[in-house]
Design brief:
Number of helices: 13
Structural class: alpha+beta
Radius of gyration: 32 Å
Number of strands: 5
Mean pLDDT: 76
Strand order of the largest sheet: 1-2-3-5-4
Order of helices and strands: HHHHHHHHHHHEHEEHEE
Length: 457
């Protein structure tokens, strides 16, 4: 066989594996296939696989690590970089967390390589022998790897129809779940090379093939079952948060009702004076009365009504629950809390929900600690834009904060035991690609801003 035929055959096999991996991983994530991104990945995958082949040849020539390079464990070294590159490309393209996309790529690698290996071994065992070597290569290499691509497409359709991506996404609601899922999928990816290394003389037959296909199905079923359980736990947690939010709303409504009753009583007394002024033709007095009444209404009821409108605009229930709870604590501490959310906040953010709640919780707790003991003021602003969510926490203060010391662990202006240092806040932001924060002083107010990108669907 000519060198060109050998190289083109190897290139075709690498291309089929790259196509299979990309199609399967995209459907695991529930994303549409982008032609440009597919082309970029195929080129990167080809280069990486040729690079690993070159390293193998070089090590073999130098007689370095023959036992490792020649074993099936070398496959793990080849699989991992390709999966990692695919994870990076998908994370950048779809604005998803890197752990999410890399884990999906590793899971896809497990399915594709297991199916491809089984196909090759079955065809080698059952295909008839031919004297013409070109035809033999076609039967034993081209056909099984083409079938592998077909299996990947079939698996993608099944995953798409079963909405596997929804359950899979539930495994990435926290950092711990994400890392654990990645380790499990990586273990699955390593299983077949390890088994081939332990039992290299096993003859492939129908039972052998059935075992590994059942192994793929069992692995996917285990992941989906775990994901469904995690989604159920998240639903329970969301319901609990909704109950807390409803309780906070009820407390706010009760307070608003009490304020309305007090306003009605005061307004009755004031209106009796207005009647006397009207009878006497005191227009200046009537104007002064209307001015005071408007100011009184804004002071007593305007803030509560504004808070209700703002909370109703926050359609991310965990975020609404957190803000409602913090506003209730501000009222208990006689801190004036103002919420400004003029437009609906509903778009999916690139920051993990748990990280968002922790980050905002830190900002609000620090703001409540920093305000003066009397006439404390905390303002929360949320502005939903097309490509980002703008979030700001503003508060007044007794002592001017030292901006250069804010990132130090345990920094506070209230003395020992009061600070929730912003160092953990910085660590949370470092995990969110594209998040931008800004902290500054203006008009005797301490302002902390956060820009969180929106996930583009």
């Amino acid at each position: 066989m000519s060198l060109f035929f050998r190289l083109s055959s190897a290139g075709y096999l690498y291309l089929m594996m790259a196509l299979s991996l990309f199609v399967l991983t995209s459907n695991i994530l529930g994303k549409k296939i982008k032609g440009g991104l597919l082309a970029v990945f195929c080129i990167c995958a080809e280069l990486l696989q040729w690079l690993t082949v070159g390293i193998q040849i070089l090590l073999a020539v130098l007689n370095v690590g023959d036992s490792i390079v020649g074993s099936s464990l070398w496959d793990i070294v080849c699989y991992a970089p390709v999966a990692f590159v695919l994870g990076i490309l998908l994370a950048r393209s779809f604005q998803l967390p890197l752990l999410h996309t890399v884990t999906a790529a590793v899971l896809g690698t497990f399915i594709v390589n297991t199916a491809g290996s089984v196909m090759v071994q079955v065809v080698e065992a059952y295909a008839p022998l031919f004297d013409r070597r070109h035809f033999l290569v076609f039967v034993r290499l081209y056909i099984p790897y083409t079938l592998t691509f077909a299996v990947a497409c079939l698996a993608s359709v099944i995953l798409r129809k079963s909405e596997f991506y929804r359950y899979f996404s539930a495994l990435f609601c926290s950092q711990f779940r994400s890392v654990l899922t990645l380790l499990i999928c990586f273990s699955l990816m390593c299983t077949m090379p390890v088994l081939r290394w332990i039992a290299p003389d096993t003859d492939p037959d129908v039972a052998y093939s059935a075992f590994f296909f059942v192994f793929i199905v069992a692995g996917l079923f285990l992941i989906q079952f775990t994901a469904m359980y995690a989604a159920g736990q998240d639903k329970i947690k969301a319901q609990e948060e909704m109950i807390l939010q409803q309780q906070a709303h009820m407390a706010l409504l009760e307070e608003l009702q009490q304020e309305i009753r007090a306003f009605r009583h005061d307004f009755t007394n004031l209106f009796s004076g207005l009647t006397l002024q009207a009878q006497e033709g005191d227009l200046a007095g009537i104007q002064e009365f209307m001015k005071k009444t408007s100011s009184y209404f804004d002071e007593k009821l305007g803030n509560e009504i504004s808070q209700m409108d703002g909370l109703n605009n926050i359609e991310l229930y965990p975020l609404r629950s957190l803000i409602a709870t913090k506003l209730a604590k501000m009222r208990q501490r006689n801190i004036k809390g103002i919420l400004e959310a003029l437009y609906p906040v509903r778009k999916r953010l690139s920051m993990d929900t748990d990280d968002l709640l922790r980050a905002l919780g830190i900002l609000l707790d620090n703001a409540m600690e920093a305000v003066p003991s009397t006439e404390g003021l905390v303002r929360v602003v949320l502005l939903q834009e097309e490509k980002e969510l703008y979030l700001a926490v503003v508060n007044n203060y007794d002592k001017v904060p030292d901006l250069s010391a804010l990132s130090h662990k345990g920094y506070t202006t209230k003395g020992e035991g009061h600070g929730t240092g912003l160092s953990s806040y910085r660590r949370i932001l470092s995990r969110c690609r594209g998040c931008v924060s800004r902290t500054y002083l203006k008009d005797n107010m301490f302002i902390q801003e956060l820009h969180i990108p929106v996930v583009q669907s």
